[in-house]
Amino acid sequence: xxxxxxxxxxxxxxxxxxxxxxxxxxxxxxxxxxxxxxxxxxxxxxxxxxxxxxxxxxxxxxxxxxxxxxxxxxxxxxxxxxxxxxxxxxxxxxxxxxxxxxxxxxxxxxxxxxxxxxxxxxxxxxxxxxxxxxxxxxxxxxxxxxxxxxxxxxxxxxxxxxxxxxxxxxxxxxxxxxxxxxxxxxxxxxxxxxxxxxxxxxxxxxxxxxxxxxxxxxxxxxxxxxxxxxxxxxxxxxxxxxxxxxxxxxxxxxxxxxxxxxxxxxxxxxxxxxxxxxxxxxxxxxxxxxxxxxxxxxxxxxxxxxxxxxxxxxxxxxxxxxxxxxxxxxxxxxxxxxxxxxxxxxxxxxxxxxxxxxxxxxxxxxxxxxxxxxxxxxxxxxxxxxxxxxxxxxxxxxxxxxxxxxxxxxx
Amino acid sequence: xxxxxxxxxxxxxxxxxxxxxxxxxxxxxxxxxxxxxxxxxxxxxxxxxxxxxxxxxxxxxxxxxxxxxxxxxxxxxxxxxxxxxxxxxxxxxxxxxxxxxxxxxxxxxxxxxxxxxxxxxxxxxxxxxxxxxxxxxxxxxxxxxxxxxxxxxxxxxxxxxxxxxxxxxxxxxxxxxxxxxxxxxxxxxxxxxxxxxxxxxxxxxxxxxxxxxxxxxxxxxxxxxxxxxxxxxxxxxxxxxxxxxxxxxxxxxxxxxxxxxxxxxxx
Lengths: 411, 267
Ligand SMILES: Nc1ncnc2c1ncn2[C@@H]1O[C@H](COP(=O)(O)OP(=O)(O)O)[C@@H](O)[C@H]1O
Ligand SMILES: [Mg+2]
Known about the structure:
By secondary structure, chain A is mostly helical. Chain A contains 18 helices and 3 strands. Chain A has a 3-stranded antiparallel beta sheet. In chain A, helix 2 (35-44) runs parallel beside helix 5 (90-115) and helix 13 packs across helix 15. Chain B is α/β, with parallel strands linked by helices. Helix content of chain B is 37%, strand content 22%. Adenosine-5'-diphosphate (ADP) binds at residues 15, 20, 38, 40-46 of chain B.
């Protein structure tokens, strides 16, 4: 590959490993509802970076990142501690820590810029927005190795993390140390945030953790597969962003990585099956169509029972509470109704279908009558769903009930 | 003498400074079906969590089969939490959730294998939902969610089961399935403690009741304890509930019932 020198290759491997780790811990954070906390954590690292620099007076990445980890963890501790001892709620605590820590960090870095004039202070800037090109060989190797360690821990503890995320109370009854597992998970999150700092910087680190996880969640519905897909997205966008930023000197890696993953997110949001915007719109449209078609058949059946085989167009279309054009078209296409000059009438198939629908609805109402409480999901069903849910013996029982009731009413 | 399945002595539990359970004393013999009854916020869930060791105890103690709660309690205690306590949009399938009931036995790092999967499938069968095994939990109805939780508890295969409102918001078919399961557990000599909100069915389902409202109002065999006076005391004279209660008792006893508080207190 032209232009891909050895150094870029090393940086590339490092950021891919980092992207994978970010996808994995980001998924866990998403499931524990900690995405916002990840952002506060990232911002809270800045004062630690500056203080570590002021303390040691040298720009050594491991030292700066140790400072970042410590002040990030301090921020998390404050976020969890404030709501317990004061009336401040978690969301406010997160906002508070994010703002206060970041403000202090900015003030400190301004101070450093004014007082320290040697070239080494340039490294601090890159931690704000990320600059993979400035990363040293050894730093990259260390970041890659640490990322692999994070991935390894999650891999071996995936069953334990699953139960402590999904149902901590149950997990504790089963004897798992859920609190320790939760703290470990938080620690891994903090480590990943810190590892991501040199590449994407304080401001965008949370995006690197959150976006792959949220995108993956739109496509998949299994815990393990979610983490794998988020890892793939994180690794791929991390690598691609690095390459682009290496190719075009003026582009900092952080924003490029985030732009790449954001594009993927937007595609996921639109196109994901089931959870995507388009799929949802289609589903809702077909539900409405289904419901209106059922109502159309019921109206026609009722008219027929009053001896009116054909109902004028104007009685069904264009008025309130009535049927839309496209539902009528769909009923015609399915062969249930036909146009008779100016009117609409049921076909033989449509008549059967309408009878079947009415029967199912009667059974369903009788069935729900003696239910202690009605599940919201079970109210708006069509005849096919009802027939699938009601067991055969229940249908017989309900039919006996219904026929005895009509006899009772007649006599 | 055999020690009771659950023994609670002088138990007080407080969240911060406010006590939500105060001076609770009772014991449950093995193999009984016990209902916990009381108004909202009475501390029923908290009592269950205290027995399970999930909330810190301010004073008093809890013993399970004559021993304090240990870290490794999964073979002894099975738990069905309140349905709303988890995120039902979590990316797992029904089988994944039921398999969690085997995690305690599996221990660190070991993954569920074929044997565990088959066992979980049997547990689903026991609740009549084996066809839902690969279903995403976000696609379940309320009654199905409850059955999944019960199947998970079955998978724990414990001696003592604690269930927090398993009958809340379920359809008639699910209620039947749960009752059938409770009967099966009793037949196997398991002890089951159930938080219950439907006063009409208490007499039918439970051998023993605990009436709770911050304090223990009464505890003992259902026929002796589930009386109008005790319910009146438990519900603090709230009329709508009380009428329901009176009706339930009238149906069950055909008389006013005898007032007998704390039959366990002397023993
Ligand atoms: N984690 C908690 N922190 C503070 N108060 C709580 C907590 N959980 C429950 N409570 C309070 O304790 C009381 C008893 O709650 P709970 O045991 O859930 O009652 P029940 O299950 O009988 O409805 C209620 O007043 C409730 O507000
Ligand atoms: Mg409760």
